[in-house]
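Let's do one together. I've listed all components of the complex below, 494 residues spread over two lines.
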Amino acid sequence: MGSRTPLYDNHLAADARVVDFGGWDMPLHYGSQKEEHHAVRQNAGVFDVSHMTIVDLSGARVREFLQRLVANDVAKLKDHGKALYTCMLNADGGVIDDLIIYFMGATDYRLIVNAATREKDLAWIREQAAQYDVAVVERAELAMVAVQGPNARNLAAPLIDARYRAAALALKPFYGLQAGGVFIARTGYTGEDGWEICMPAADAPAFWDQLLAAGVAPCGLGARDTLRLEAAMNLYGTDMDESISPLEAGLEWTIAWEPENRDFIGRAALEALRNSPDRQRFVGLLLEDRGVIRNHQKVLVDGFGEGEITSGGYSPTIDKSIALARVPAGDYDRAQVEVRGKLLNVRIVNTPFVRNGQIRIDI
Amino acid sequence: MDELPGDLLYTVEHEWLRREDDGSVTIGITDHAQGALGDLVYVELPEVGQDVEEGGEMAVVESVKAASDVYAPIAGEIVEINEALADDPETINSDPYGEGWIVRMQPADAIDEEALMSPNDYQQFLDELDD
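Okay, and this is what the predicted structure of the assembly comes out as:
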């Protein structure tokens, strides 16, 4: 038996197929992954993401610490509640984890890191924090749900304390707000509008039930993966890991090169790779033949070499197979993927594949 | 769990076989198999006329989650494939024992019932998997 979130009984009540995910018993789907996917694109769905790790940092030097710890620059966070997506790197420029940082107050930040990397992340953060006298507090007592979809905020709003409801609805994308004991952020991992909400564990089961009663579909990790793939949002451990830098995982936009004298961990390694002619591309693929292209399949580019699919699968919105892949440097827009000994044709496309319910590529 | 169709034979690979009046055998995957795979999105079928060996790869069913081989439960020749699955693979989810059939084979040899499972045996096999 793995760890269980405060919503475990709610999942069983909704007929979840439960699977192990990084030591957690989590819902894969509640009947049909495809229907859950469509619910999020067209209306609203809710995910239990309580397995993710919430870490609060505080201290007079916390900003200086984060400017050393992560590749993006928390100096961009000027307003309270503003969020920043970033990677935390090792000295070689490899990604230890990707995370979201919320600016909570002058000396307070909240980090949300992945579940499967919890222990190494906490150890790394504590090790680096020691010399900055920053307090690192894991908030394991909080549950977290992500309610996502074009109607998600409107359906969830009646469940928010009336004193904070208007402010919650007024949140701009990538901003959060502390609403009593609940933290509400307009963020997500689906390519749709919505909120991610942290709350005391004891409040989560009733909150979940009320969302379902309001018509929000319970959604499992399966739909979470197809939604994030369509949105071309990276998955840690799949699209990047400690041997891959953000430069070769499509995450250059999360690296703050300026100011030049900000010495974040991994900077020297990234600088060396930045203008290298051999730097691999990280691209979106659309399968033009029938079939499904999947993780780890080989990508062959005539005249340029070989690459690999990091995340591939079926796109329910497009009804074709799509993938993210790391491929050789060079200027080309077609390739082939080896599937069970056959070569299938793919086209390189600009990502995201889907955003806010709309297909964004030529199909 | 719904009752298993009583006129079929079953395998440990969660396939079913129906003996047709003309001596051919229709083959598909069981309700348990489709449930474990989840929403099917693609089926790779063999060619009509192809000979397959017992235990050989006969088709591939791909769900949103993963690709899964379908093994031939008997040796024989493929005499018909369910071409409708090309456009509607999800038929296997909705009607695994009916419209979701995958291939029809002409067996090379007489069917060895001892090597397959009756509905009762398969039900027991499924019950033990759940334990």
